[in-house]
Design brief:
Blueprint (H helix, E strand, L loop, with lengths): L1 E6 L9 H6 L4 E8 L16 H20 L4 E5 L2 H12 L3 E5 L4 H13 L4 E5 L21 H8 L45 H14 L6 H4 L13 H6 L4 H14 L4 H23 L19 H9 L5 H13 L4 H14 L4 H11 L5 H12 L13 H8 L4 H7 L3
Parallel strand pairs: 1-2, 1-4, 2-3, 4-5
The structure holds flavin-adenine dinucleotide.
The site of flavin-adenine dinucleotide has 29 residues, from helix 8, helix 10, helix 13 and helix 15.
């Protein structure tokens, strides 16, 4: 049986259950689709894929291709809409099976359904690769997902319930079918301008984690440092690799547990896992809410705000806009990264000070973030706007108070606004 494995946000060999599943056939082809729509302007003007994530993704693909080569394989990369490209590849090979990672968001699920419908004679399988738990292992049905993160965490932290154990990288893969044309690489547009400090790919992700966890042991102080506005070791910085699937979240959780067994455990080591549960909650929340993750006003009926992107850009650059927000804009747009604290501050300022529609801010983040994750991004914006999974109905940050707590000496603002 020939299997096509369509890679999406699972650009790794380690702990990749989809790859293991796909490797059960007698022949295998791995394919990645670069969707031209990623680069087209969205409803607010920004394209979904900005320069930082694209640079990171390209490097991840190069790294994956090299890793597959060591197993005698290559990666077919096509510049094409998946609804057209995936069935084309499957049909051209006469493949009997298609495997991919289960998508988290509404549009990707619709895309998958279209592909399935186009391949009525092919066995099409979704495999969970993005989450700590499988849906069957959750202590509730997805349609009864707890309404708040606190309830979710209490349910998921029940004694005896642990994330799925990660799998090792496969020792071998079935060969490519004989009629396979390995020379099908279409990389799409160039990298654009990106000064992101993050290098894509599984190898650099593994190195990064080894340094953060085992060499520097920065996890031991994570809970006290994580709110810093801009300090490399203050938080793990694993998000770009997790979002691209170049690192497995299950592997990360298992490494944290191993660190606790072999080195030390304290409130900080637990807190990093706690943050992974926030990520987990938003993944399931996105699947549960479907289209509602993207619409305003959301569940609680409250929302208003301007959707004018030109006005938004002018506000971001206006000298009257708080210097903390202006500095955050520069950091985000030039590097693709903001700390969690800065993301919260900026989201709150956009919604409550600038009075913009939260979806505008979310689309801006989507374009620029190197670690954009659909569920975490839209889930967090909704949370701050008070239209999603927030029992308190929104979170308003007092910017002057944030400055006195986190940037009293002005170093963050000076650094990014290049002020003396
Ligand atoms: C408005 C807004 C938008 C955001 N958009 C994204 C996004 O597109 N992609 C993304 O990965 N994260 C997003 N986050 C969550 C969080 O800010 C980042 O995950 C974090 O800053 C990444 O840095 P880190 O890896 O050093 O995080 P750490 O503090 O080291 O945390 C470890 C991991 O836990 C997860 N995590 C931590 N905090 C959160 C959170 N609040 N929600 C969900 N997961 C979390 C992430 O996977 C993160 O990599 C957003 C937060 C806000 C407030």
């Amino acid at each position: 049986m020939t299997t096509v494995y369509w890679l999406t946000r699972d650009l790794r060999l380690d702990d990749n259950p989809a790859l293991h599943e796909a490797a059960k056939g007698s022949a295998l082809v791995c394919v990645y689709m670069i969707d031209p729509r990623w680069f087209e302007p969205g409803p607010f003007g920004w394209s979904p894929m900005g320069p930082h994530r694209w640079a990171f993704t390209r490097r991840s693909l190069v790294s994956l291709e090299a890793a597959l080569n060591t197993l005698g394989h290559s990666l077919v990369i096509r510049w094409q809409r998946p609804e057209e490209g995936v069935p084309e590849v499957v049909n051209s090979l006469g493949a009997q099976r298609l495997v991919t990672s289960r998508p988290t968001a509404f549009d990707e699920m619709r895309q998958w359904q279209a592909i399935e419908a186009a391949l009525p004679l092919v066995r099409c399988d979704l495999v969970e690769t993005l989450t700590l738990f499988d849906e069957v292992g959750l202590p509730f049905r997805l349609d009864a997902l707890p309404e708040t993160f606190s309830k979710f965490r209490r349910a998921i932290e029940k004694p005896g319930l642990t994330p799925v154990t990660p799998l090792n990288k496969p020792a071998a893969l079935p060969a490519a079918p004989s009629k396979f044309d390995a020379d099908q690489q279409q990389f799409g547009p160039g990298t654009g301008q990106s000064e992101t400090p993050f290098a894509g790919g599984e190898v650099s992700g593994v190195d990064h984690l080894a340094r953060y966890l085992w060499k520097d042991q920065s996890i031991l102080t994570y809970k006290v440092t994580r709110n810093a506005l801009d300090d490399v070791s203050a938080s793990s910085k694993v998000s770009p690799w997790l979002s691209a699937g170049a690192l497995s979240v299950r592997r990360l959780a298992a490494e944290i547990a191993r660190f606790e067994r072999e080195v030390d455990r304290n409130e900080s080591t637990y807190w990093l896992y706690f943050e992974l549960l926030w990520r987990e909650y938003f993944q399931w929340y996105s699947r549960h809410r479907g289209r509602e993750l993207f619409i305003s006003p959301g569940r609680q009926g409250q929302h208003s705000g301007s959707t004018d992107a030109g006005e938004f850009e002018r506000w971001l650059q206006n000298a009257d806009t708080h210097a903390l927000v202006r500095a955050g804009r520069v950091q985000l747009e030039s590097t693709g990264y903001l700390s969690n604290r800065m993301r919260q501050i900026i989201a709150s300022a956009c919604i409550y000070d600038g009075r913009f529609d939260w979806r505008l801010g979310a689309a801006w983040f989507e374009h620029f973030l190197v670690d954009y994750d659909v569920a975490s991004n839209y889930g967090n914006w909704q949370y701050i706007a008070g239209v999603g999974a927030d029992p308190r109905g929104g979170r308003v940050f007092n910017l002057d108070k944030q400055v006195s707590q986190f940037d009293a000496d002005g170093s963050y603002r000076k650094r990014w606004l290049k002020e003396p």
